[in-house]
Design brief:
It is a single chain. This protein is mainly alpha-helical and about 325 residues long. It is built from 14 helices and two strands, in the order H-H-H-H-H-H-H-E-E-H-H-H-H-H-H-H. Residues about 1-5 have low confidence and may be disordered.
Amino acid sequence: MKALLKRREYTLALFILLMLVVMLVVSPRFLEPNNLLNILLNSVTVGILALGQCLVIITKGIDLSVGANMGLVTLVVGMLLLKGESVWLSVVLGLFVGIVCGILNAMLISIIKLPPIIVTLGTMSVYSGLMYLVTGGQWVQNLPNSFLAIGNFKLFGIPAPVLVLLVLLFILTLFMEYTVVGRYVYAIGNNPSAARLAGVSVGRTVVIPYVLLGFLAGVSGVLYLSYNGFSTPTTGSDLNLESIAAAVIGGTNVFGGRGTAFGAVLGAVLLGVITEALVFFHLPAVWNDAVEGLIILVAVITDSGLSRSRRATG
């Protein structure tokens, strides 16, 4: 039990359960199946982005452009659909846009050796500008039912976006824990110099997390658009920091080298529970940012303390 409680994923899961118990006492309606399903649905977009953000942060990187990337995908797919393109062609092109954005970040970071925070801050502005160019500043809505069916499809009562999140969680867990490249990612985050001496191609390996995050931004954009049925030129603007927050809260070390896909998704779920709880308490949305920021500070301080403890005992 002590070993389990030392892992952030388990303590985070217990904290989420504690919050649910508290909300059950305060407002039994909070735990109604429809409300819990709504929390999961609202956590899908952040959860998918947090999976990729986790990989990037493990390599000592960061991606501040992922929200704009995801928003750009929603608008590209929406405009293609409104012009009469087929659903599957629009979806494939949307995923392609997400991947290209990820590749651009990766090339600037791995080849030109620019700092990730500077690169992604710049590309965030570029992608945000493209969002206005694609739509002329207009909303994308009135999409065909054949496309909306993707996000509203259910299997055994579970919405398609939640199913996709679970599948991606499973795949990325296998990738991170049981593949050579996945272990290389951790090695680079722990000690880039040692990884290079061990024969790991640091430059090539760093590319992979950013490209995967671009793909995940495409997936989340398609799901977001198909479930909500509309998008705006500001869609995704708040997801850059939320995806980072979810990953960090879930145990991804901001100094690199440690983190899990499961923890990142749990972090997204916790943020979803907090947001829904504030709605039940009728508190202003600004409180959500304050609580989220407080949890991030606690997570970072905890990581820093644990790191010092390990060094002292090691």
